[in-house]
Amino acid sequence: MDAEVQQALLNYYCQEGLFQHVRAAADEALARLGVDPVLLFYRAYGALRAGDVQESIRQLESIKNKPEVSLCTMMALIYAHKKSPNPDRDAILELDARLKEQRKTAGQQALYYAGLFLWHLGREDKAREYADRMIKVSGGSKEGLILKAWLDLTCGKETHIKKALKYFDEALQEGNDVFALLGKAQYFEVRQKYSGALEIVNQIIANFPNFIPAFIKKMKLQLALQDWEQTIETAHRLLQKDPLNLEAIRMEALHHLCRGGNTSEASARLGDLIKALDRLEPRNSDLFCKMALAFSRTCGRNQLILQHTQTLVQRAFDLASDNAEFATELGYQMILQGKVNEAQKWYKTAMTLDETSVSALTGIIHCQLIQGQLEDAEHQLEFLNEIQQSIGKSGELSFLHAVLAMKKHKRQEDVFALLNDVLDTHFSSLHGFPLGVEYFEKLNPDFLLEIIREYLNFCPSQPASPGQSPSPLLKHCASVLETVVKTVPGLQQAVFLIAKVKYLSGDIEAAHRNLHYCLERNPSYADAHLLMAQVYLAQNNIKLCSQSLELCLSHNFEVREHPVYHLIKAQTQKKVGEIAEAIKTLQMARNLPGMRKPTASSKTKGKSIEIDASDRVSVFLELVEAHRLNGEPHEAAIVIQDAMNEFSGTPEEIRVVIANADLAIAQGDVKHALTMLRNITLEQPYFVQVKEKMADIYLQYRKDKKLYVACYSDLVEKLPSAHTLLLLGDAYMNIQEPDEAIEVYEQALKKNPKDPSLASKIGKALIKTHNYSKAISYYEAAVRSGQQNFLCYDLAELLMKLKQYEQAEKVLQQALDHEPVNELSSLMEDVRYQVLLAKIYSKMETIDRAIVSLQQARELQGRVLKRAQVEQLDAVPAQKQLAAEICAEIAKHSTAQRNYEKAIKFYKEALVHYLMFRKQDYEQAIFYFQQLLERKPDNYATLSRLIDLLRRAGKLEEVPRFLSMAEKHSSRTKLEPGFHYCKGLYLWYTGEPNDALRHFNKARKDSDWGQNAVYNMIEICLNPDNETVGGEVFENLDADIGNSTEKQESVQLAVRTAGNLLKELKPQTIQGHIQLRIMENYCLMATKQKSSVEQALNTFTEIVVAEKDHIPALLGMATAYMILKQTPRARNQLKRISKMSWNPIDAEDFEKSWLLLADIYIQSAKYDMAGELLKRCLRYNRSCCKAYEYMGYIMEKEQAYKDAAMNYEMAWKYGNQTNPTVGYRLAFNYLKGKRYVDAIDVCHKVLKVHPNYPKIRKEILDKARACLRN
């Protein structure tokens, strides 16, 4: 490492506050380069900032007369003396006088290092004076320009930042300088041009491959670009170079926590981080505290993680017990752990250390609110309010105001306004931060979930009925939660809360999908099981509801203490008519400890199940309903009275009043019900629900439409908002008065112009009035405004219904006329447009254009499916169904055009989407195709699909019957390219590559079968024996054969043949061109020449950059890395693929990637992990010889010879007894398992085809015979 790079490294560590790193790097350089005053100064400076003041003074004294470091050394000595417990005033005065004297005659080096020292100390203005003077003295030296650029970049003033790039570029004209390049990358990062910054960092890595800060910067930039996979790959590279790299360990831990939700892995890595900190920066208090922040705020209050973060902050405080910020953070750590008394002690400690600490006072108020000390909290908040203007707005402070208002039962609108203000303040503070460690800290998902829980207190406790507009609060909650889940998808509580919000919004399917995602990752999540039970109950699925309750109980037996468990159980009993049992269950729930105390929570082992007032009141109300249904009005009235006494003066009291009104209605006393409801005033909670209930009574029981609407009009008058206007509009629609509804919806739209549901409702209301021309005008104006582009679909659909096909086509063509999109939602929208456009073309009887639109939809939908499996799991089932419908529609049009081959192809694909995507239900698909072939044996499109299905079902032995049927059907069969293609396919799958090639060759010139035949021929040429390309497990077993000259010449000939075949391919689609590029680069890799493999790797990387989850290209990258012996990088790409959902389009590449990853795991003796992958291969392809072969190898290694033989038998069977390696392994394991006759039989079969196969005669055949004789 040259001096320039060494100094850049030291400067980087100084700026990052890694002072022990500075000392270690300086020591290492001194040992390598010899005595150097600059390195001695850095070592002393590192000691000074690490807190070793006396040692630093001693070291600085020894170099203060060295001209190049004289100024910075004297400055550092003055700083050190001031930091001493007993400062030497005389020494400081003497040094100060000497500094002033020497400054007058200082040379450029002395000025430069003085400026550099002041910059590291954070005194930018003073540092700039020295840098300017140094530039002047030296006539514009490179070092001076670079320092000035860094000063401009880090001062935080926009006027200076603008100039930084000019100085960096000026310095770089003299050649690559690592410190200048690092600064230029930082400039682009500050400007939020992360791709540009990444280019510069890659340039640093190319020129200075051992410069660790460049890798750290690259890792952070990749995260800023939201590419977690590449971020983690760079972290792995960093750890290979520097096993204790703090940033890389932290990034891995964050990835486990935030991305994967794997708290045990994250906790283990966090433990490693603490050990690394103890070793590398044991006295760096700021670093200890800083490392804790992101984890504590993103861990969902996981106790394992919080124990580590508390340890980190405690260490920081132990090192600097006069630091109020550390004490405040310890208070927050205690709050997160639910230890309120301890939190209060730490906040008071912080106030003692710094009586002006606003964050400590905020913490004390938070504790007071939790403990119900409302008067004290209010008094303190008033004080903070007065000083808030000087300190600026704080989200935390606004939140405490909201909590206080809620606890004091202030008007809902006032609480909402405060909570909205909290979110506005909080999110505005995130502006400009890229995704990264600091963003996780600032986002503070834990705080956001607290806010959401407060909002949910005001949301209905039951899901919205079909057609009912859900509370706008729920929409607001969903928006915040989606931001959290997008950033921290591993935070299960956020996914759970999204499920809850979806459930309450009436979107039961979305709730189910999100809960399924939660429970897949954490099957013991009791609250998720409870909510899943409620979801099943809402779907009237009593059986699954009961199962969810049982699962919940099996994972957390203490859930019996939770009233909601009994509540749901009672609701299921009520649904099946077991009213008496439901009453018993609810009475049991009423006697639970948590039901008697409003603030109680039942403790479980290490966990607490929160029991809120909403759940408690639900138990009472459900019991009232059960008594009513059981014909016990008196008992129902007693429970209602108990509920009134229990919840009097709380927000939940109104729900009891509504239930009381329901009871009165059930007894026929409508008047009394209305009287009770009229007594509820605007200031009370649930006012909107009360008005909705009154309106419902007027319509259902009084049949009075006028009073029904009057309830909603009164709501609008008293609570004017987009939501109440929406309710009034819906009410008008319910009583068939669309004209009035339109007028109200338009008022609502003015209040909330970006609400898509409002715009859509207006359009539908206009259609209901048969005012089609106005509906069209409205839609067109909305689309033209650019705010309501999603209405293009509604407009085109309306025009189609009115048979105005040309206008409908024009609308959709305009909607589709845009630059290529990559956002998942935009891709989905384009698919919808294309499908509707196809319907319009179908109506216009232009079938060819309809098919083109559907094919474009199909290609887009393929991309949607791949992306959805990574980004939006809950959307996958619906998207699979849409894919099937698109294929079925293409098939229908092809049938109408009498293009039966094409029709069969797409019906088959539709069926695959329905069957193979969902259940791998091969049997049904096979039966369907057999039926088709019985009627038309020469339907080769169907036959080729059937061969693939039979292979996947492990039934290849059934294929010859269908080939024979085709031959008998016509004398021309043996001349048909389709027949030869199918025969080639069967032979290839059964281990006869040479015969397969002959048959594919006969199909290769055909317009229908040629392209696929050529692709298959290329694959056979490149891998005739179906080996795991890049795999190493079986690489040496056939070493003698593999390294023979004859074999090498054969491989070279095959590669040349494949190259010639590639020239015959003429793809017609974008995906076809990509497939061709991939095959070309597989040919390059087959040469095994390093330059060719690296060239292929670059191409695969380009494809993945353009399309992130392109499985064939990812597999290509992994294979190239394996050939280049870069196994960790290969493993990273393969692990990416292993996390994706299987699809039939990429089936072969999935299988190859799983096999290659299994190969890697076997090499490192991770047999369990390999076994899981091999089982996955066999689940999707029961004829996968290689999977059986690897399974046999694992069993053999574990000396389970009988099991090994069983797996090798399957590999031997499905490989058609042609692979000599498998034959050898099978015979060997038969020998070990004392099955001598079987061993001899297999040896004969191998030797018949491969008479010179090494060792089999001597090592197995002769031994087996000898054992038989004995």
UniProtKB/TrEMBL annotation:
<feature type="domain" description="Tetratricopeptide repeat protein 21A/21B fifth ARM repeats">
    <location>
        <begin position="914"/>
        <end position="1022"/>
    </location>
</feature>
<feature type="repeat" description="TPR">
    <location>
        <begin position="789"/>
        <end position="822"/>
    </location>
</feature>
<feature type="domain" description="Tetratricopeptide repeat protein 21A/21B fourth ARM">
    <location>
        <begin position="758"/>
        <end position="911"/>
    </location>
</feature>
<comment type="subunit">
    <text>Component of the IFT complex A (IFT-A) complex. IFT-A complex is divided into a core subcomplex composed of IFT122:IFT140:WDR19 which is associated with TULP3 and a peripheral subcomplex composed of IFT43:WDR35:TTC21B. Interacts directy with WDR35 and TTC21B. Interacts with TTC25.</text>
</comment>
<dbReference type="InterPro" id="IPR056833">
    <property type="entry name" value="ARM_TT21_N"/>
</dbReference>
<keyword id="KW-0963">Cytoplasm</keyword>
<feature type="domain" description="Tetratricopeptide repeat protein 21A/21B C-terminal ARM">
    <location>
        <begin position="1057"/>
        <end position="1265"/>
    </location>
</feature>
<keyword id="KW-0206">Cytoskeleton</keyword>
<keyword id="KW-0969">Cilium</keyword>
<dbReference type="GO" id="GO:0061512">
    <property type="term" value="P:protein localization to cilium"/>
</dbReference>
<dbReference type="InterPro" id="IPR019734">
    <property type="entry name" value="TPR_rpt"/>
</dbReference>
<dbReference type="InterPro" id="IPR056834">
    <property type="entry name" value="ARM_TT21_C"/>
</dbReference>
<dbReference type="InterPro" id="IPR011990">
    <property type="entry name" value="TPR-like_helical_dom_sf"/>
</dbReference>
<feature type="repeat" description="TPR">
    <location>
        <begin position="722"/>
        <end position="755"/>
    </location>
</feature>
<dbReference type="InterPro" id="IPR013105">
    <property type="entry name" value="TPR_2"/>
</dbReference>
<feature type="domain" description="Tetratricopeptide repeat protein 21A/21B N-terminal ARM repeat">
    <location>
        <begin position="11"/>
        <end position="232"/>
    </location>
</feature>
<feature type="repeat" description="TPR">
    <location>
        <begin position="324"/>
        <end position="357"/>
    </location>
</feature>
<dbReference type="InterPro" id="IPR056832">
    <property type="entry name" value="ARM_TT21_2nd"/>
</dbReference>
<dbReference type="GO" id="GO:0035721">
    <property type="term" value="P:intraciliary retrograde transport"/>
</dbReference>
<dbReference type="GO" id="GO:0005930">
    <property type="term" value="C:axoneme"/>
</dbReference>
<keyword id="KW-0677">Repeat</keyword>
<dbReference type="Pfam" id="PF25064">
    <property type="entry name" value="ARM_TT21_5th"/>
</dbReference>
<dbReference type="Pfam" id="PF25063">
    <property type="entry name" value="ARM_TT21_C"/>
</dbReference>
<dbReference type="InterPro" id="IPR056836">
    <property type="entry name" value="ARM_TT21_4th"/>
</dbReference>
<dbReference type="Pfam" id="PF25060">
    <property type="entry name" value="ARM_TT21_2nd"/>
</dbReference>
<comment type="function">
    <text>Component of the IFT complex A (IFT-A), a complex required for retrograde ciliary transport and entry into cilia of G protein-coupled receptors (GPCRs). Essential for retrograde trafficking of IFT-1, IFT-B and GPCRs. Negatively modulates the SHH signal transduction.</text>
</comment>
<keyword id="KW-0802">TPR repeat</keyword>
<dbReference type="Pfam" id="PF25068">
    <property type="entry name" value="ARM_TT21_4th"/>
</dbReference>
<dbReference type="GO" id="GO:0010468">
    <property type="term" value="P:regulation of gene expression"/>
</dbReference>
<dbReference type="InterPro" id="IPR056835">
    <property type="entry name" value="ARM_TT21_5th"/>
</dbReference>
<dbReference type="Pfam" id="PF25062">
    <property type="entry name" value="ARM_TT21_N"/>
</dbReference>
<protein>
    <recommendedName>
        <fullName>Tetratricopeptide repeat protein 21B</fullName>
    </recommendedName>
</protein>
<feature type="domain" description="Tetratricopeptide repeat protein 21A/21B second ARM">
    <location>
        <begin position="269"/>
        <end position="540"/>
    </location>
</feature>
<dbReference type="GO" id="GO:0030991">
    <property type="term" value="C:intraciliary transport particle A"/>
</dbReference>
<dbReference type="Pfam" id="PF07719">
    <property type="entry name" value="TPR_2"/>
</dbReference>
<dbReference type="InterPro" id="IPR040364">
    <property type="entry name" value="TTC21A/TTC21B"/>
</dbReference>
<dbReference type="Pfam" id="PF25058">
    <property type="entry name" value="ARM_TT21"/>
</dbReference>
<comment type="similarity">
    <text>Belongs to the TTC21 family.</text>
</comment>
<keyword id="KW-0966">Cell projection</keyword>
